Amino acid sequence: MPQHVTVVDYDPKWPAKYEMERDAISAILAGNCLSLYHIGSTSVPGLAAKPIIDIMAVVRSLKEVDALSGKFEELGYECLGEFGMAGRRYFRKGGDERTHQIHVFQVDDWPNIARHLAFRDYMRTHEEERREYGTLKKSLAKAFPYDIEGYCEGKEAFVREREARALALYDGSWDRLFLAARKVQGERRISSFVEAGSIAAALLTSMGNIYVGVCIDTSCSLGMCAERNAIANMLTNGESQILKLVAIMPDGRPGMPCGACREGLMQLSPTAGDIEILSSYEPKETVRLKTLIPE
Q1: DSSP assignment, residue 223?
Q2: What tens digit of pLDDT does each residue of 172-191 get?
Q3: What is the value of pTM for the model shown?
């Protein structure tokens, strides 16, 4: 039986459904997973949508994902490979009355990652176009109730045009920094005296470059915070002006630099107090370095 196309008004329960599935997916992907995102229309408050939870996973390795097909099948998913999009791994759940879709990309595939996040963020912040898109989808669902291809073709022009606008406006710097730090994060046992990698940092310079570093913990006083490691990387490459900084704690959440790192950052330049530091990833909450330093 062909897929039934139905579009309904926004349901405030959708974010909770995403969170429940996110936890199950995270458990399967484990250390290969760098980040999970609620994308698609159900991630946009106020937007009418097919009641299907779209989830994007960003991973270190697609090969590791391919080896987990059985685990996803146990969770109720069909594993469909790239399914028409090079570099993606696509999983769907619910059969003809689909309930969830997972789109997995390797962390290096920034164009595809950015495209999904940009469109989502654009629709969240543009009310008139959100309303127009919802109206279009409802009319197409009535016209093509059992023709998913006809439904998708009907909204293709709208999506492509808005996606181009979204990408033109999208500032993906926090997403790039977060993923850059997560990519290098991971505990390393160097020797019986040295461990590294449980905390990672990434910074963005005024020249638009990203430098990363991980913490180095030693049994003597020669250790180094991840932030200072990233700063050393930047200085080695001839730069010193930082615009933005992310430090990722062992639990995968952003954290604040220690006192020594704050002082070191402040001494880099007269304008260092304006460096933005990510305090919460999903809502993109930030603080300025100068607010973390006593008078």
Answers
A1: -
A2: 999 999 999 999 999 999 99
A3: 0.94
